[in-house]
Every structure is written in C-alpha cells, then in structure tokens.
Design brief:
This protein has helices spanning 5-31, 43-53, 55-58, 66-84, 91-132, 139-156, 162-170, 173-182, 188-204, 206-215, 218-225, 228-241, 243-251, 255-260, 267-283, 286-294, 297-306, 316-322, 334-348, 354-364, 370-387, 391-403. With 407 residues, it is mainly α. This is ARM repeat superfamily protein.
Length: 407
C-alpha cells in the first residue's frame, strides 16, 4: 500500500525530533563510551540499541540507511563484548575493555554522521515540499515555513558537506527559494527568511551557487523588497561574490535604487544601505562608483554625517569620556583599545565620518586603478565643499578624507 504523502508530512516533525535525540545520544557516546561501574548500559547506548532492535522494520526498507544499520549491529556486538569483561581484572580483560571502548567511541562518530545524513534527507524533503505549497495567509502555516527555513539556514551555516549539497541540488532548493523571494504575494517575513537561506547557500559553497545568483532574479528581488533585512543580505552577497556582483548591479541599473535607501525614514534601512554603499565602494569598478556619485551620494553622506546618528570619529575620545565613563575596555591596549573605542562609537553613531569611510573604501579597495582612485578622491573633495553648509563643516570632512577616517 502506497504511503499517504500528507501522513508523511504530519509525521515529519516528530521523526526529526526522534532523530535529533538519537544524534545527541551518539554524540554523548563519543565522549563517554564506557558506562559507570554501577550502570550496566548508559542512556546513550540504550537509545541506540533500541534503534538497532527496530532496525528491521525501520532501516531495512531504505537503502540509504543500510550503513547505519550495519553500524548499529556492530555497536551491539561491541557493547556485548564490553559487558562480558565487566568484573574481570585480568590484563586481557583490561585490554579488551580499552579496545572496545575506543571502538565504541569511533563507531559513535560514524553513527552520528549517518543520523545527521538521515536528518538532512528528511529536512530537505520537508523544506522542498513546504516551498511548493500555495500560500493560504494562515499565520500558523507561515510560522511553520519560517521555522523550516531557519533550520535550513542554520544547517548550511555549519559548513560545507558534499552529501548535503547533493540533496540541495537534487531538490532544486535554490530555484524554490528564489521563487519565494520573488513572489510579491508572499508575506515579507517569509521572503526575508528565504533571502537569509540564499545568503547562507552562497557562504556554504559560492562556486556552485554564485552562477544562479548572477543569472537569476535574486538581486533584483532583494532590492525591490527594500527592507533592512533584504539589504543586509545583498550586502553579504557583495562581500562573497565581490566585483562580478557589483558589475551585475550596475549593468542592471540598480545603483540608484540602492542610493535611494539612504533617504529612508527607517534608520535600520539607512544603516543597511550605508553598509551596502561601503561594500560597493570597495569592490566596485569605475562605472559603479560613477553611478553612485551621479546619484548625489556624497551630498547624502554629508547630510547623514550631519545628522544625530552621524558625527566625526575624532569625537571618539569625548564620547568615551562622556557616554561610557566607567566602562572598562577589557584590557585591550594601544591600537586594539583605539579600535574598540571606535567600534563602540560607531554602534551609536553609524554615520560618523561616513564620507571619509567611503573614500577609504575606494582607496584600499579592489575595483579601481591607482589613477582612478586619485581622480575620484578629488571629485569627492569637490562635492563635499558643494554639499557643506559651512566652511567649518567642509574643512572637517575634507581633512578626514585627506588623512583617513581614524582619529
């Protein structure tokens, strides 16, 4: 009789909970393979041996679980050998216990890997199925989807795994995530979590997934969404993919939209856009920098530096004395202490010295030739003088641009 897909979907969360418990048991067994003298069998061993007892019904029908079934059978044999030596104090028994304990610890690691692979198969299939479901504007269903998206993001953020990558490619998860990201009828929170998952996939293996980002609609969708979260994901993608992504943004005419976020009424969006501008400044080629300057970037940065969230990094010392008096930096001396103070100041004043910080990005970045750097620096200085409301403001910002943003 064929299994009802809806029944499998209902059981999936429970299956995953059980698998997580078994995974933790195998992890515990690696660090403590030998039970205490007054405990014939540890809880971890009991949990895994119960799975071995049920293996005929659970594992034998799935070829992906044959290795796990073999490991559990070997574990049972090792545990039996270990128990037979209990109470014996001969050298042979001692050596047998040591060998069995070492083998159990090593085998537990293999069991943990196989259970993780099992969890991955169940989770990826569950996520793929959830991404294909039509949206019903049901809050509970939305929360379930956000939960599985978050779990997926967490899993791929743990580092590269070839078997996991094969599953992601098999189920075409990138395409499904991009489809959610581009669906304007989908709730924004779900789209944002799909964006987080895409960003995690690029960090997971940039070489495999970068082509899909550059050729697909991901970048346009992130910019169109225009939330602080989507802009932060865009910023992380620029850091990962570098100049090729900035080239794509510039070619698609998206630079003006990014610059416009600096005018947002929401501080979080302005801050995210500032970070994005700095990354484009570092990796952008001449055309991208020209496009930003054409959109009045320097005037906007001067206004932001003038705002209550702005200021000058030269004020770091006064900030430390006035606003954080009595707070220890934690034993960091010299250069490290200065950097710590600067970081604390920027947390409260994210647009402090933003003009100079942008100029520094161009100066030390990867996208420009030396002559282009000099020319853009002169243009920035000219635009600063035009945008400043006083000679004193212009002099301060010009000095920062000329000598760098550090106090």
């Amino acid at each position: 009789m064929e299994e009802d897909p809806s029944s499998k979907e209902d059981n999936n969360p429970q299956i995953l909970k059980v698998l997580e418990v078994l995974k933790q048991a195998s992890h515990d067994l690696q660090t403590n393979p030998s039970p205490h003298s007054d405990q014939p069998t540890s809880p971890a061993i009991k949990a895994l041996l119960e799975l071995e007892t049920e293996s005929d019904a659970i594992l034998s029908t799935d070829p992906n679980l044959s290795t796990l079934s073999l490991h559990l059978s070997n574990l049972k044999s090792l545990v039996e050998t270990l128990q037979k030596t209990r109470g014996h104090h001969s050298l042979r028994s001692f050596l047998t216990r040591r060998a069995s304990t070492h083998s159990i610890s090593r085998l537990a690691g293999s069991i943990e890997s196989e259970i993780q692979a099992w969890i991955d198969r169940e989770s990826i299939e569950n996520l793929s199925r959830a991404l294909q479901e039509p949206f019903t504007n049901n809050k509970n269903e939305d929360e379930k989807l956000i939960k599985v998206l978050t779990q997926f993001e967490t899993r791929v953020s743990q580092g590269f795994n070839r078997d996991l990558q094969d599953l992601i490619l098999k189920w075409k998860l990138f395409t499904s995530l991009e489809s959610i990201l581009c669906n304007e009828k989908c709730p924004r929170r779900i789209r944002e979590h799909a964006a987080f998952a895409v960003g995690a996939l690029i960090r997971f293996n940039k070489d495999v997934f970068v082509g899909q980002v550059l050729m697909g609609r991901t970048i346009q969708a992130l910019i169109t969404m225009g939330s602080a979260s989507s802009i932060r994901v865009l910023c992380s993608l620029i850091k990962s993919i570098k100049s090729p992504l900035v080239d794509e943004i510039e070619c698609n005419g998206e630079i003006p939209k990014i610059i416009s976020f600096l005018d947002s009424e929401e501080p979080e969006i302005r801050i995210a856009a500032m970070d994005c501008v700095l990354e484009i400044g570092y990796f952008g080629r001449k055309e991208a920098i020209e496009a930003m300057l054409k959109e009045g970037l320097i005037k906007k940065l001067v206004e932001l530096q003038r705002s209550e969230l702005g200021g000058d990094l030269i004020d770091v010392g006064r900030f430390e004395e006035g606003e954080t008096r009595g707070v220890s930096v934690g034993g960091v001396a010299g250069e490290g202490k200065r950097e710590c103070r600067e970081r604390r100041f920027l947390e409260c004043h994210p647009f402090a010295s933003c003009v100079a910080r942008f100029a520094v990005q161009l100066e030390v970045g990867e996208g420009l030739r030396q002559r282009e750097r000099r020319d853009f620096k002169q243009e920035i200085l000219a635009r600063v003088r035009e945008a400043s409301v006083s000679d004193a403001e212009a002099a301060t910002i010009v000095a920062e641009v000329l000598w760098g943003s550090s106090p």
